[in-house]
């Protein structure tokens, strides 16, 4: 079964068409990138998928069920997680608490049990802490568990944001410009991280990215947008040599 279907989706902002008749189909375990110039509508597509916006027209299905216009927290609980173009951590909380917070949508205890510290609450809290520490260990952040999130270097804050997204237990992960602001070494490490997540967590990944080295080095398939419209899609080799893409986005440099 197709994991995600975006079918003929259009979205307008006060008469301005940001996305026009957009279609996207993701199969389980695909790694797909969406590229395009600034203002092409890429992040709007992410916001439509995750319930920030409701489509003006068209529909979005996840595992065969329509999710168009559902509240964002319900979409997260259904198995879709995302990161943001501008890092959105709980900056005053610890690294560990940032990851713990992501588990609470799956918590199975009541407010009453929490207030009284009943056994089911204590067991759940212990399991959440253990799982959070396990994720931090996987991504090399366990030694910083008690550090304030804002104190982490930029690249590690990006890594923490991805770790927090994975804590929700998604089957589809949306990464919105994860290499933004990274130097070449950090971008190279990010590529390795994306490949590792894709393989070890058995995830489908949808990626928005401007750094073409990251896109070409990670994506199996690429969708190209310009002015809210899909102008091309294909493998990295096909996109690299597509005249429409070169004109709209890549310019003369295709390496």
Short description, anyone?
With 255 residues, the protein is an alpha/beta fold.
Descriptive report:
With 255 residues, the chain is an alpha/beta fold. The protein has two domains: 4-79 and 170-250, 3-Layer(aba) Sandwich (Rossmann fold), CATH 3.40.50.300; 92-154, no CATH class. Helix content is 39%, strand content 23%. The strands form two sheets. The chain has a six-stranded mixed β-sheet with strand order 6-7-8-3-9-10, sandwiched between helices. Strands 2-1-4-5 form a four-stranded antiparallel β-sheet, with helices on one face. Helix 3 packs parallel to helix 6 (154-166). It is globular, with a radius of gyration of 19 Å.
Give the topology, please.
Elements: E1 4-13, E2 16-26, E3 31-35, H1 42-49, E4 57-62, E5 65-66, H2 72-78, E6 80-82, H3 95-102, H4 111-116, H5 119-138, H6 154-166, E7 172-176, H7 184-200, E8 204-208, H8 212-218, E9 221-226, E10 229-234, H9 236-240, H10 243-250
Oligomer state of the chains in this structure: single chain
Mean pLDDT rating:
90
- CATH superfamily membership of the largest domain, which one? P-loop containing nucleotide triphosphate hydrolases
CA radius of gyration: 19 Å
CATH-assigned fold name of the largest domain:
Rossmann fold
The count of helical stretches stands at: 10
Shape: globular
How does the major sheet shape up? 6 strands, mixed
Helical fraction equals 25-40%
The ordered string of helix (H) and strand (E) elements is EEEHEEHEHHHHEHEHEEHH
Under CATH at level 1, the class of the largest domain stands as Alpha Beta
């Amino acid at each position: 079964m197709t994991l995600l279907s975006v079918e003929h989706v259009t979205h307008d902002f006060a008469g301005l068409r940001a996305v026009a008749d957009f279609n996207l189909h993701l199969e389980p375990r695909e790694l797909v990138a969406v590229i395009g110039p600034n203002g092409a509508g890429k992040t709007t597509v992410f916001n439509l998928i995750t319930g920030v916006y409701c489509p003006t027209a068209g529909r979005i299905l996840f595992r065969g069920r329509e999710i168009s216009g559902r509240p964002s927290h319900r979409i997260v609980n259904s198995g879709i997680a995302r990161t943001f173009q501008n890092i959105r951590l709980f900056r005053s909380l610890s690294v560990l608490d940032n990851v713990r917070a992501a588990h609470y949508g799956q918590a199975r205890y009541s407010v009453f049990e929490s207030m009284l510290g009943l056994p089911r609450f204590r067991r759940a809290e212990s399991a959440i802490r253990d799982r959070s520490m396990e994720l931090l260990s996987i991504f090399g952040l366990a030694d910083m568990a008690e550090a304030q999130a804002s104190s982490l270097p930029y690249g590690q804050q990006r890594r923490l944001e991805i770790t927090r997204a994975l804590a929700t237990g998604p089957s589809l992960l949306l990464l919105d410009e994860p290499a933004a602001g990274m130097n070449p070494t950090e971008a190279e490490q990010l590529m390795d991280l994306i490949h590792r997540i894709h393989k070890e967590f058995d995830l489908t990944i949808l990626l928005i990215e401007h750094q073409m080295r990251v896109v070409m080095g990670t994506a199996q398939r690429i969708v190209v947008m310009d002015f809210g419209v899909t102008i091309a899609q294909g493998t990295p080799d096909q996109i690299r040599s597509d005249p429409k893409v070169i004109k709209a986005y890549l310019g003369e440099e295709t390496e």
